[in-house]
Amino acid sequence: MRHRCDNCGRHWDQCELQAIKNYFQRVEPGSIVPSGQCPDKDCGALCYPLDPCGVNRRRAEKMFSILTELLEWDAQMGHFDSPVWHHARALLNSIRDESDKLRGE
What are the residue ranges in the chain where pLDDT is below 70? Predict the structure, then answer.
C-alpha cells in the first residue's frame, strides 16, 4: 500500500516510512491515524494511506447523505426525542464543522 505525505505530497511505501516522533503532540484525539512520518529529511510531516479507488470517501459521503436524509425526515416529523436521534444530530453537526474547517470556512 502506498502512503502520501500530508506536507510535501510525495508517495511512499509502508517500509519507507519512519516512526512518528512526538506522536501525541502531533496527532489529535479522534483524528485520522497517520501511517508514519515522511522519510524526506527536509520534510518529516505525517503520512496517510492512499485510497486510490476512493472507496472510503464514497462510503463516508453515502453515510453522510443517509444521515442528512434521516435528520430531514426527523425534522418533518416533529423531532423524535431519543438518545439515538441526539447522537445522530451531534454527529452530523460534527461532520459539518470538520468539513468547514478543512475548507477554511
Answer: 52-55, 102-105
Contact in structure between 42 and 1 (CB atoms under 8 Å): no
> Residue 44 is placed in which grid cell?
518529516
Record the pTM: 0.50
Residue spans per domain, the chain: 2-49, 55-103
> How far does CA 12 lie from the centroid of its chain?
20
Contact 17, 3 (CB under 8 A): yes
What's the Cα-to-Cα distance from 52 to each of 27, 46, 91, 96, rounded to whole Å? 23, 18, 26, 24
Rounded to 10 deg, the angle between the 83-103 and 55-76 helix axes is: 130
pLDDT tens sequence across 61-78: 888 888 888 888 888 887
